């Protein structure tokens, strides 16, 4: 979870050009996450037209990079609701992000 450095509003994660970017809904400030999506993104990820739902804490296991956690589950949907949503997991400890293919 990120807070806006300007107005301290909780920021919304978005995938912009394959990168995870946090956007402030109040003042529109953007902060790039240190993590990038490791897997080759599919067509829906190339669009800015995606919605990322707020992360949900999960007990999905350990991070494959740092072996710790907690792991947050991110659900990403395209605005054309006929496509299935994409699920990502992000380690809140080292911000490593990976995609759920299950
Ligand atoms: Zn702000
Ligand atoms: Zn980690």
The proportion of strand residues reads 35-45%
Bound molecules: zinc ion
Question: Would you report the number of β strands?
Answer: 8
Number of helices: 1
Instruction: Summarize the helix and strand pattern as letters.
Output: EEEHEEEEE
Write a concise synopsis of the structure shown.
This protein is mainly beta. Helices cover 4% and strands 39% of the residues. It has one domain (12-99).
Key descriptive features of the protein:
4% helix, 1 helix, 102 residues, binds zinc ion
Give the topology.
Blueprint: E1 12-16, E2 19-23, E3 30-36, H1 43-46, E4 50-52, E5 56-58, E6 71-78, E7 86-91, E8 97-99
Antiparallel strand pairs: 1-2, 2-3, 4-6, 5-6, 6-7, 7-8
One zinc ion is lined by residues 4, 6-7, 9, 24, 26-27, 29.
What do these coordinates show?
Helices cover 4% and strands 39% of the residues. A hairpin with a 7-residue loop joins strand 6 and strand 7. It is globular and about 35 Å long. It has one domain. The two termini are 25 Å apart. The protein has 1 helix and 8 strands, in the order E-E-E-H-E-E-E-E-E. The protein is mostly beta strands. Strands 4, 5, 6, 7 and 8 form a 5-stranded antiparallel sheet that branches. A 3-stranded antiparallel sheet has the order 1-2-3, with no helix packed on it. The protein binds zinc ion (ZN) (2 copies). One zinc ion binds next to loops.
